[in-house]
Amino acid sequence: MHLYDKFFSEYGKMVSQILLSGDDVENPVKKQNLRNTFFTLIEHNIIPIVNENDSVSYTEIESNDRLFGDNDMLSSVVAVLCRASKLVIFSDIDGFYNCDPRLHPDAKLIEEIDKIDDEVYKLAGGAGSRRGTGGMRTKLQAAALATSQGIDTIITNGKNPAALYNIIEGVPVGTKFKAQ
Question: Is pLDDT of 132 > 50?
Answer without folding.
Answer: no
